Amino acid sequence: MQERIQKIIRDALGMSRRAAEDVIIQGVVTVNGVSAKIGDKADRDIDKIVVRGQLLSIPDVNILKVYYVLHKPVGYTSTREDRFARRVVGDLIPQGNNLFIAGRLDKNSEGLMVLTNDGDLVNTITHPSFQMEKKYYVSVDRYLSTSEMRKMEEGIKLDGELYKVKSIKNIRSKRYEYEVVLTEGKKREIRILFDVFNIPVLRLVRLAIGPIELGNLPSGKFRKLTNEEVYSLVHYEKQE
Fold first, then answer.
1. Which of 92, 171, 195, 208 is deepest in the core (most CB within 10 A)?
2. Given this model, what pLDDT does residue 64 score?
3. What is the mean pLDDT of the segment spanning 62-73?
4. Which residue of the set 22, 43, 47, 106 is catalytic?
5. Is-above-0.85 flag for pTM?
6. Is 106 tagged catalytic?
7. Domains annotated on the chain, with CATH
8. What are phi and psi of 194, to 5 degrees?
Protein backbone atom coordinates (compact mmCIF):
# COMPACT_ATOMS: atom_id res chain seq x y z
CA MET A 1 0.00 0.00 0.00
CA GLN A 2 1.34 3.41 -0.97
CA GLU A 3 1.74 5.89 1.92
CA ARG A 4 3.43 9.23 2.31
CA ILE A 5 7.12 8.90 3.19
CA GLN A 6 6.83 11.15 6.24
CA LYS A 7 4.16 8.87 7.76
CA ILE A 8 6.33 5.79 7.27
CA ILE A 9 9.33 7.55 8.85
CA ARG A 10 7.17 8.77 11.73
CA ASP A 11 5.94 5.26 12.48
CA ALA A 12 9.38 3.70 12.19
CA LEU A 13 11.33 6.26 14.22
CA GLY A 14 8.65 7.32 16.70
CA MET A 15 8.82 11.01 15.85
CA SER A 16 6.24 13.63 15.02
CA ARG A 17 5.05 14.12 11.44
CA ARG A 18 6.74 17.54 11.42
CA ALA A 19 10.05 16.06 12.56
CA ALA A 20 9.77 13.37 9.87
CA GLU A 21 9.21 16.07 7.26
CA ASP A 22 12.29 17.93 8.52
CA VAL A 23 14.37 14.78 7.99
CA ILE A 24 13.17 14.61 4.39
CA ILE A 25 13.89 18.32 3.83
CA GLN A 26 17.44 17.76 5.08
CA GLY A 27 17.96 15.49 2.06
CA VAL A 28 19.00 12.43 4.06
CA VAL A 29 16.15 10.14 2.94
CA THR A 30 16.20 7.94 -0.16
CA VAL A 31 13.62 5.54 -1.56
CA ASN A 32 15.11 2.81 -3.73
CA GLY A 33 18.23 4.94 -4.11
CA VAL A 34 16.41 8.12 -5.16
CA SER A 35 16.37 11.22 -2.92
CA ALA A 36 12.90 11.66 -1.36
CA LYS A 37 10.79 14.80 -1.36
CA ILE A 38 7.86 15.90 0.81
CA GLY A 39 4.72 14.30 -0.61
CA ASP A 40 6.47 11.29 -2.15
CA LYS A 41 4.85 7.93 -1.48
CA ALA A 42 6.21 4.44 -0.95
CA ASP A 43 5.11 0.96 0.03
CA ARG A 44 6.63 0.11 3.41
CA ASP A 45 6.48 -3.62 2.59
CA ILE A 46 8.25 -3.36 -0.77
CA ASP A 47 10.37 -0.23 -1.11
CA LYS A 48 13.85 0.25 0.34
CA ILE A 49 13.78 3.39 2.50
CA VAL A 50 17.09 4.68 3.86
CA VAL A 51 17.47 7.45 6.45
CA ARG A 52 20.94 8.91 7.10
CA GLY A 53 22.52 5.89 5.46
CA GLN A 54 20.60 3.38 7.56
CA LEU A 55 17.94 1.08 6.13
CA LEU A 56 14.67 1.91 7.84
CA SER A 57 13.38 -0.86 10.06
CA ILE A 58 9.61 -0.89 9.55
CA PRO A 59 7.70 -2.06 12.63
CA ASP A 60 5.30 -4.95 12.24
CA VAL A 61 1.81 -3.49 12.67
CA ASN A 62 0.69 -6.81 14.18
CA ILE A 63 3.30 -6.74 16.95
CA LEU A 64 2.00 -6.54 20.51
CA LYS A 65 2.13 -2.96 21.74
CA VAL A 66 3.95 -2.35 25.02
CA TYR A 67 3.98 0.70 27.27
CA TYR A 68 6.42 1.48 30.07
CA VAL A 69 7.09 4.39 32.38
CA LEU A 70 10.63 4.87 33.64
CA HIS A 71 12.22 7.05 36.29
CA LYS A 72 15.28 8.23 34.36
CA PRO A 73 18.33 8.85 36.55
CA VAL A 74 20.84 11.63 35.97
CA GLY A 75 23.70 10.54 33.72
CA TYR A 76 21.68 8.54 31.22
CA THR A 77 21.36 9.65 27.59
CA SER A 78 17.94 9.54 25.94
CA THR A 79 18.94 9.33 22.29
CA ARG A 80 20.37 6.21 20.70
CA GLU A 81 22.09 8.37 18.09
CA ASP A 82 24.91 9.33 20.48
CA ARG A 83 27.57 6.72 19.70
CA PHE A 84 29.70 7.87 22.62
CA ALA A 85 27.04 7.58 25.31
CA ARG A 86 28.08 5.12 28.00
CA ARG A 87 24.68 4.81 29.64
CA VAL A 88 21.50 4.89 27.58
CA VAL A 89 17.92 5.01 28.85
CA GLY A 90 16.98 1.94 26.81
CA ASP A 91 19.43 -0.16 28.82
CA LEU A 92 17.22 0.19 31.90
CA ILE A 93 14.27 -1.71 30.36
CA PRO A 94 14.29 -5.16 28.71
CA GLN A 95 14.18 -4.55 24.93
CA GLY A 96 14.21 -0.84 25.76
CA ASN A 97 16.59 0.04 22.94
CA ASN A 98 13.96 -1.20 20.48
CA LEU A 99 11.32 1.16 21.89
CA PHE A 100 10.54 4.79 21.10
CA ILE A 101 11.03 7.41 23.79
CA ALA A 102 8.04 9.72 24.10
CA GLY A 103 9.53 12.91 25.48
CA ARG A 104 13.28 12.91 25.92
CA LEU A 105 15.23 14.34 28.83
CA ASP A 106 18.78 15.63 28.63
CA LYS A 107 21.61 13.77 30.32
CA ASN A 108 21.60 15.95 33.45
CA SER A 109 17.83 15.80 33.96
CA GLU A 110 15.80 13.06 35.61
CA GLY A 111 12.25 11.89 36.05
CA LEU A 112 9.32 10.43 34.15
CA MET A 113 9.69 8.99 30.65
CA VAL A 114 7.36 6.88 28.52
CA LEU A 115 8.85 4.15 26.30
CA THR A 116 6.68 2.29 23.81
CA ASN A 117 6.53 0.73 20.35
CA ASP A 118 3.29 2.62 19.65
CA GLY A 119 4.27 5.39 17.22
CA ASP A 120 0.83 7.01 17.36
CA LEU A 121 1.03 7.41 21.13
CA VAL A 122 4.52 8.91 20.81
CA ASN A 123 3.05 11.47 18.43
CA THR A 124 0.20 12.24 20.84
CA ILE A 125 2.65 12.87 23.68
CA THR A 126 5.23 14.87 21.74
CA HIS A 127 3.48 16.78 18.96
CA PRO A 128 2.75 20.41 19.92
CA SER A 129 -0.77 20.26 18.45
CA PHE A 130 -1.90 17.96 21.29
CA GLN A 131 -0.58 20.39 23.93
CA MET A 132 0.00 17.58 26.40
CA GLU A 133 1.17 19.08 29.67
CA LYS A 134 4.49 18.03 31.16
CA LYS A 135 5.13 19.03 34.76
CA TYR A 136 8.65 19.59 36.16
CA TYR A 137 10.32 20.29 39.49
CA VAL A 138 13.14 22.81 39.10
CA SER A 139 15.66 23.75 41.77
CA VAL A 140 17.80 26.88 41.30
CA ASP A 141 20.07 29.11 43.40
CA ARG A 142 17.88 32.20 43.84
CA TYR A 143 14.31 33.43 43.76
CA LEU A 144 12.81 34.49 40.47
CA SER A 145 11.10 37.85 40.38
CA THR A 146 7.46 38.15 39.35
CA SER A 147 8.66 39.90 36.20
CA GLU A 148 11.02 37.04 35.29
CA MET A 149 8.28 34.44 35.73
CA ARG A 150 5.85 36.53 33.69
CA LYS A 151 8.38 36.81 30.86
CA MET A 152 8.82 33.03 30.84
CA GLU A 153 5.04 32.60 30.52
CA GLU A 154 4.78 35.25 27.80
CA GLY A 155 7.64 33.68 25.86
CA ILE A 156 11.16 34.73 24.92
CA LYS A 157 12.41 34.64 21.34
CA LEU A 158 15.95 33.37 20.80
CA ASP A 159 17.46 32.86 17.34
CA GLY A 160 13.99 32.93 15.81
CA GLU A 161 12.58 30.29 18.20
CA LEU A 162 9.97 31.08 20.85
CA TYR A 163 10.67 29.53 24.25
CA LYS A 164 7.94 29.66 26.88
CA VAL A 165 6.31 27.84 29.76
CA LYS A 166 2.60 27.38 30.28
CA SER A 167 3.02 28.18 33.96
CA ILE A 168 5.67 28.59 36.65
CA LYS A 169 5.20 28.95 40.39
CA ASN A 170 7.27 28.79 43.55
CA ILE A 171 6.54 25.64 45.54
CA ARG A 172 8.56 26.28 48.70
CA SER A 173 8.46 29.37 50.91
CA LYS A 174 12.13 29.29 51.93
CA ARG A 175 13.79 27.37 49.11
CA TYR A 176 14.42 28.18 45.48
CA GLU A 177 12.16 25.49 44.08
CA TYR A 178 9.62 25.83 41.27
CA GLU A 179 6.94 23.88 39.46
CA VAL A 180 7.12 24.43 35.70
CA VAL A 181 4.54 23.22 33.18
CA LEU A 182 5.27 22.92 29.46
CA THR A 183 3.00 21.99 26.57
CA GLU A 184 5.71 22.11 23.90
CA GLY A 185 9.05 20.75 24.98
CA LYS A 186 11.85 22.10 22.82
CA LYS A 187 15.30 20.67 23.49
CA ARG A 188 16.59 21.95 26.86
CA GLU A 189 13.78 24.52 26.90
CA ILE A 190 13.61 24.98 30.67
CA ARG A 191 17.38 25.30 31.06
CA ILE A 192 17.54 27.79 28.19
CA LEU A 193 14.82 29.97 29.73
CA PHE A 194 16.49 30.05 33.13
CA ASP A 195 19.83 30.76 31.47
CA VAL A 196 18.35 33.92 29.94
CA PHE A 197 18.24 35.31 33.49
CA ASN A 198 21.66 33.85 34.41
CA ILE A 199 20.06 31.32 36.74
CA PRO A 200 21.73 27.89 36.68
CA VAL A 201 19.38 24.92 37.06
CA LEU A 202 20.65 22.76 39.93
CA ARG A 203 18.12 19.96 39.55
CA LEU A 204 15.39 19.24 36.99
CA VAL A 205 12.88 16.41 37.45
CA ARG A 206 9.91 15.63 35.21
CA LEU A 207 7.02 14.83 37.53
CA ALA A 208 4.19 14.13 35.07
CA ILE A 209 3.32 13.61 31.42
CA GLY A 210 -0.34 14.43 30.88
CA PRO A 211 -2.33 12.32 33.36
CA ILE A 212 0.63 10.03 34.21
CA GLU A 213 2.62 10.94 37.32
CA LEU A 214 6.06 9.84 38.48
CA GLY A 215 4.79 9.22 41.99
CA ASN A 216 7.14 7.17 44.17
CA LEU A 217 8.70 5.14 41.34
CA PRO A 218 12.38 4.81 42.39
CA SER A 219 15.14 6.25 40.24
CA GLY A 220 16.28 3.77 37.59
CA LYS A 221 13.16 1.63 37.93
CA PHE A 222 10.29 1.09 35.50
CA ARG A 223 6.79 -0.33 35.38
CA LYS A 224 4.20 -1.14 32.77
CA LEU A 225 1.38 1.29 32.18
CA THR A 226 -2.07 -0.03 33.06
CA ASN A 227 -4.76 -0.25 30.38
CA GLU A 228 -6.51 2.68 32.05
CA GLU A 229 -3.34 4.80 31.91
CA VAL A 230 -2.79 4.01 28.23
CA TYR A 231 -6.40 4.97 27.53
CA SER A 232 -5.97 8.26 29.39
CA LEU A 233 -2.92 9.14 27.28
CA VAL A 234 -4.48 8.12 23.97
CA HIS A 235 -7.63 10.13 24.74
CA TYR A 236 -5.86 13.05 26.39
CA GLU A 237 -7.81 16.31 26.18
CA LYS A 238 -6.13 19.69 25.96
CA GLN A 239 -6.21 21.61 29.22
CA GLU A 240 -7.60 25.13 29.11
1. 92
2. 80
3. 87
4. 106
5. no
6. yes
7. 2-55 (3.10.290.10), 67-129+211-234 (3.30.70.580), 133-209 (3.30.2350.10)
8. -65, -35
